[in-house]
Amino acid sequence: MIEIKNINKTFGDLQVLKNISLTIEDGEAYGLVGPSGVGKSTLLNCLAGLDSYESGSIIVDGVPLESLGEKQARLFRKNMGIIFQNFSLVSRKNVYQNIALPMECWKVPRSQIKKRVYELAEMVGLKEKLMARPAELSGGQKQRVAIARALTMNPKYILSDESTSSLDPSITVSILNLLDKIRKEMGITIILVTHEMPVVQQFCRQMTIMDAGTATVSGDVRELFFQKPPALQKLLGINEGETIPKSGVNVTFGLAFDTLLWELGKLMEKPYKIINSDFFEFQNQKHGNVTININAEDLPVCENYLQSRGIVYRTERRAL
Ligand code: ADP
Ligand code: MG
Prior knowledge:
Layout: E1 2-11, E2 14-24, E3 29-33, H1 40-47, E4 55-60, E5 63-64, H2 70-76, E6 80-84, H3 95-105, H4 110-123, H5 139-151, E7 157-161, H6 169-186, E8 189-194, H7 197-203, E9 206-211, E10 214-220, H8 221-227, H9 230-236, H10 260-267, E11 273-282, E12 285-293, H11 299-308
Parallel strand pairs: 3-8, 3-9, 6-7, 7-8
Antiparallel strand pairs: 1-2, 1-4, 4-5, 9-10, 11-12
């Protein structure tokens, strides 16, 4: 488990991390989310033991990182496999040699290295490419090499800094599926820094939204996407009154007599307006939300009906 408590960090006059606190449970798929420049990478580097902070504490499996000496810090970093947007592969080494690199640094015996490289190459689907150099690989393949390399020392955590941000959407999906497999099969906790909301929606179960060095919102991703707090609306680019798309095709149809929206309309005194609805994919499942605006007096009837159907809902009182 990772506990980040009241972390503060400055670069010169700039306070990059402002009193950040969050907890990451074991086996989690955790997102550190926010636009560029808000301090995500800095926080990840502190967590990886690659950067220092002025105050606060980062406690990994009960051990405060600030308390570690140089040698202990080096040992600690074995726990953390890191992958980056630019893959950070050594271009003059082939795939085998790139994956083997950390094990050579740690003076693992040659026979063990070979076994592990083959095992990991199989896991990430690159068995046929072991002799290829990075320049001969696609972006997705390069990231698979980086993932295999990050796994060599059996880390407990994988830290990913925008690792899918330079990849095509379909390649991104396959890399996230690979990370999910690693999380489930190897029990590795994965912490994903990203500014891409589809990545959060596909992969993360818990997240913290960062804005200007502050952790503004933390919680269950599904719950947050349902509640849509202002910090998330901002990230999703939702502005009130701008929900009508400027592209695509508008399709208007009548409500069928047996549908929920029809039944609801029949029960209420005043007509309602559908002000927004969306149908989206979340962790490979389809979901849909509809927002209607009703007369305040009709709220009890509406709530009663939704509760009787076992439908989860939220209300937001509108007042000018
Ligand atoms: P993010 O990953 O969210 O894009 P970063 O953590 O990279 O944000 O950066 C946060 C802020 O800190 C930015 O304003 C960036 O310019 C600044 N910053 C990052 N690293 C350094 C550094 N080594 N020296 C000075 N300023 C830095
Ligand atoms: Mg960054």
